[in-house]
Amino acid sequence: MRWSAIWIGLAMLLAGCAGTGSGAEACGPWRPILVSVADRLEDATARAILAHNMTGRRLCGW
């Protein structure tokens, strides 16, 4: 249940980039999530970060 809420929240945040047409300006406040070698991630967290970054690349031109 918790991960479903995270995915829904992520989708809602990224939807703002898709709805304005110009993309880059609408995505100004949003940035890629960078991970350090020292970070210890669960598989689901790593997948969520990857989904965020790939969506940002596609919609916002990161």
Structural write-up:
The model has no long low-confidence stretch (mean pLDDT 79). The chain is globular, with a radius of gyration of 12 Å. The longest helix is centred in the C-terminal third of the chain and has 18 residues, at 43-60. It has 62 residues and is mainly α. It is built from 2 helices and no strands.
Element-by-element helix/strand order: HH
Total count of helical runs of at least 4 residues: 2
Uncertain segments: none
Radius of gyration: 12 Å
Structural class: mainly alpha
Instruction: Identify the overall geometry.
Output: globular
The main sheet comes to: none
Write down the overall mean pLDDT: 79
C-alpha termini separation: 30 Å
Helix content: 55-70%
Beta-strand fraction estimate: under 5%
Q: Total number of β-strand segments?
A: 0
